[in-house]
Design a protein that fits this description.
The protein is built from three helices and seven strands. By secondary structure, the protein is an alpha+beta fold. The chain has one domain. The C terminus is likely disordered.
């Protein structure tokens, strides 16, 4: 578990789990407050980080917190969300440590319309949660 300044938690809304959907095929999907899925756990236990996609055949829906007590206002809820991510093996908790430098890397396909500035993403990019400052701007030097 981690301790954090709650003011920083709101920055990580895209990867703080708001809830979980279970699909007919047994897949479980973590989604954020915007109902955007960001991680899928297969029945085998394999977890895949994902970008936006349409979740079909939902048979169960569970919410981890309510709007009147979001993680950025409650240390207990924030720790609960971090524990869920830890249980899934989604490594983002270093982002919450004071002074840590991290980022999310989206590796889109070359033909993706988002890269060409024409429209929203139409590929399935690889997504990496990276807490290693060495990988930002080639070791910290801006290009």
């Amino acid at each position: 578990m981690i301790n954090t300044n709650l003011k920083n938690a709101a920055k990580y809304r895209p990867v703080i789990p708001y809830g979980k959907w279970t699909q007919l095929n047994g897949d479980q999907v973590l989604f954020n407050r915007g109902y955007t899925p960001f991680a899928v756990k297969k029945p085998s236990g394999e977890v895949e980080i994902c970008d936006h996609f349409w979740v079909k055949n939902i048979v169960n829906s569970e919410h981890f917190w309510d709007d009147w007590e979001p993680p950025w206002k409650s240390p207990e809820i924030l720790q609960k969300c971090c524990q869920i991510l830890d249980d899934w093996g989604v490594v983002i908790s270093p982002r919450f440590e004071r002074g840590a430098v991290s980022h999310i890397v989206y590796r889109h396909d070359d033909w993706c319309t988002q890269l060409n500035g024409k429209s929203a993403c139409n590929c399935e990019p690889d997504i990496e949660f990276d807490a290693n400052p060495e990988t930002i701007y080639d070791g910290g030097a801006a290009r």
